[in-house]
Design goal:
The chain is built from eleven helices and ten strands. It is an alpha/beta fold and about 350 residues long. The strands form two sheets. A seven-stranded mixed beta sheet has the order 2-3-6-7-8-9-10. A three-stranded mixed beta sheet has the order 1-5-4.
């Protein structure tokens, strides 16, 4: 058997065929210069005219989200969002982590939508699909610009990320948190640095994510941890240690999801197991099937985030026990829209009342 190629700094090892496109595109793996791993990351302007996406899923915990980026350079091999890149004509593989769509007008669009009388204040999720703090955010600051708008309107926000870069925006998040309008979750899948670098090659290390938890807690920002996804036979046994470490860093609440492998992700993940854990491949895949009714993916509401069967039941029990032992007795904090306001247009600011300042 030929072992697939491992590309330094990338989660996927290939570009599987787009299920909507007949043409196959082969990646140029030798296109990088110096230490930059091939293929080189390319950024495209996304000319979307709206920035707030809504959903009616009972599983995800939010109704509306803002995603300044499409695709994600973190390169998490298991990412459920990879197939969304196929709608853009790209592959769910290397394209997803090397062809990133950026929304330069994200803050402007967000301001327009919040200003509209049609907007009914509600919690907005940052990173509803792909991470809003992926590496390019350090340069483009699209997420920070969106947070500045949210702070101006005092609209509550929940942030989920794998990147320590979230600590850059503590000033804005703390201002919102003081009005019960901000919460931050760090996604931590493992405490093993080597495993993390294989699964999530361009995300912050586990230690840096824990440092971000501590920084948020020290700033008075409600912070929790998402042990997501838990992969049976690979990282699920780490759940108690992850929750304990997060609690020690200041996390007050936690959640978890079980791995599911929609569309092209199932082959990408199987390929990744062949490259990195060939001895565990069949064990891991078979346990996922046990949790997903004999398949590698379960799209049904109510079960897709946790799965079913013996292994799912054991994971649920482990999570409950780990939470108690870690002292995480609190629930996900309830955010408030009570402070929401629509700031006066610039030409009317001189006549604003003191209460609006």
């Amino acid at each position: 058997m030929t072992v697939p190629t491992t590309i330094h700094g990338r989660g996927a090892g290939s570009n599987p065929k787009n299920r909507f496109v007949r043409l196959d595109v082969l990646p140029d793996l030798d296109s990088a210069d110096g230490d930059e791993p091939g293929p080189r990351t390319v950024f495209f302007h996304d000319t979307t005219r709206t920035i707030i996406a809504t959903n009616d899923s009972p599983d995800v915990g939010f109704e509306a989200s803002v995603n300044p980026y499409r695709g994600c350079e973190h390169g998490c091999v298991y990412c459920f969002a990879r197939p969304t890149h196929e709608y853009l004509g790209f592959s769910a593989g290397l394209d997803f982590e090397s062809k990133i769509m950026v929304k330069p007008d994200a803050a402007k669009l967000l301001r327009a939508e919040l200003t509209s009388p049609k907007w009914q204040p509600k919690v907005l999720q940052l990173s509803g699909v792909t991470d809003c703090y992926q590496p390019i955010e350090r340069k483009l600051t699209l997420t920070r610009q969106c947070l500045e708008v949210l702070a101006e309107f005092r609209n509550p926000v929940s942030v989920l990320t794998k990147n320590h870069l979230v600590t850059r925006d503590i000033d804005i998040l703390a201002t919102l948190a003081a009005r019960q309008a901000a919460v931050v979750l760090l996604s931590i899948t493992t405490l093993d640095h080597d495993l993390a670098m294989k699964m999530e090659p361009r995300a912050s290390s586990p230690a840096r994510r824990l440092a971000a938890v501590r920084a948020m807690a020290d700033a008075g920002i409600p912070v929790g941890v998402m042990a997501a996804p838990m992969i049976p036979g690979l990282n699920d046994q780490e759940m108690p240690a992850i929750l304990a470490a997060a609690a020690e860093a200041g996390a007050k609440f936690a959640g978890y999801t079980s791995l599911r492998l929609p569309f092209a992700v199932k082959d990408l993940f199987a390929d990744w197991l062949t490259r990195h854990f060939p001895d565990r491949k069949e064990k891991v895949l078979n346990r996922i099937r046990d949790m997903r009714g004999g398949k590698l993916n379960d799209p049904e509401f109510g079960s897709r985030m946790r799965g079913g069967g013996i292994w799912a039941g054991q994971l649920k029990s482990m999570f409950a026990l780990a939470k108690r032992k870690a002292g995480m007795t609190g629930h996900f904090p309830s955010l408030s829209t009570a402070a929401f306001r629509r700031p006066a247009p610039p030409q009317l600011e001189l006549w604003s009342s003191a209460d609006d300042q």
